[in-house]
Amino acid sequence: MSAETTETAAARRTSLHGVHEELAAVFTDFGGWDMPLKYGNDVAEHRAVRSAAGLFDLSHMGEIRVTGPEASALLDHALVSSFGGLAVGRAKYSVMADARGGIVDDLITYRLGEREFLVVPNAANAGAVLRELTVRGGGFEASVRDESGTTALIALQGPVAAAVLGRVLEELHLADGGSELSGLRYYAAAPARVAGHEVLLARTGYTGEDGFELYLPAGEAEGLWRALAEAGEADGVVPAGLAARDSLRLEAGMPLYGHELGPDVSPCEAGLERMVGAALKAKGAFVGREALAAALEAAGDPGARTLVGLRGLGKRPARAGAVLLEPADTDPSGERGGRRAVGVVTSGIPSPTLGHPVAMALVERRFAEPGLVLPVEIRGRAAEFEVVPLPFYRPGR
């Protein structure tokens, strides 16, 4: 996902902006868009997604269609992962790297046909991804078309999402010929008719819960939103804003562009070593290959950075930018003294679900062992955080 921007003057609006105003949303600029931050209490919205479901407007995301005989070859060259073997109807999470091995964006790509893909970049990076796909696509028999301005995206996320969607699902055309919602697997997508609207229905999301993302023409978004809201009202489905989306994704250990990911972060530092290793084995030349091969080789060094989860042992949350120090037992005085910085918090919150602070951080690998307790500087004082595996939260756990 994409980090919040500070520029608000020219913020764009989604086709659901009027609905959000009706719901008395508090707005914020996010990736150049005027988006609902919350509709009332963001913690209540968070908890509703964990216990029932939330309805999200994600129409600020980009949609780029790549088609043609060499569409998969173009994506193999332009992105880190391999797409030639991706089955029709399936999706893959990947990153676009630059020549230095930094991350241009993280994105999801759906294979809609043998020669057709839908690439979904983050809002703030959609223009950069479009430019790079166009430039990197030179010489390939494939076309790159931006559909972001005409496409809306609505997400329904939470344990009752399937039941609610089932009430308004009229048709579903799975790649294997099936038509039952239970046959739509995680990270899969299929054409569907929902409450009279033709959509691309995907079982993907950014909350750690089961859920769906529905792509449709922007002019039809309001009708579908209202139909889903009505279908889920009795089950406690609520509109949810970006604040809840951020706390949900953090509990689920999912990275946010501009925090865990960015041009100065290698995929090998961000927990994506397996993705890089698989790409290096599976395919030949692609943008960033040499730099990523070097980064993967260096990733095992004790001083190399890696992404970890942190569980607060006290009540004070660590926010992005907080510095992690060497373990307290390196300085018997208990003061920072000569203890050096060994990492930085990339995201942190008081977890509404777990009841204690959680954070993600980039730290030196020598300090990434689960169970290790590290001091984190919070407003001039040290607070103890334990290194724990990601994700912090899984449904049913």
Task: Summarize it.
InterPro entries: GcvT, GcvT/YgfZ/DmdA, GcvT/YgfZ_C, GcvT_bac, GcvT_C, GCVT_N, TrmE/GcvT-like. With 397 residues, the chain is α+β, with helices and mostly antiparallel strands.
Q: Any descriptors?
A:
397 residues; 20 strands; single chain; 7-stranded mixed sheet; alpha+beta; 21% helix; globular; Gyrase A, domain 2; Elongation Factor Tu (Ef-tu), domain 3; 9 helices
Rg for CA atoms: 21 Å
Distance between the amino and carboxyl termini: 25 Å
Strand order of the largest sheet: 10-11-12-13-9-3-14
CATH topology (level 3) name of the domain at 17-61 and 150-251: Gyrase A, domain 2
Question: Mean pLDDT, rounded to whole units?
Answer: 95
CATH hierarchy class name of the domain at 17-61 and 150-251: Alpha Beta
Largest sheet: 7 strands, mixed
Sheet/helix structural class: alpha+beta
Query: What letter string, H or E per element, gives the SSE order?
Result: HEEHEEHEEEHEEHEEEEHEHHHEEEEEE
The general outline is globular
Count of alpha/pi helices: 9
CATH 4th-level superfamily of the domain at 17-61 and 150-251: Probable tRNA modification gtpase trme, domain 1
Oligomer: single chain
How much of the sequence is in beta strands?
Answer: 25-35%
Q: How many beta-strand segments?
A: 20
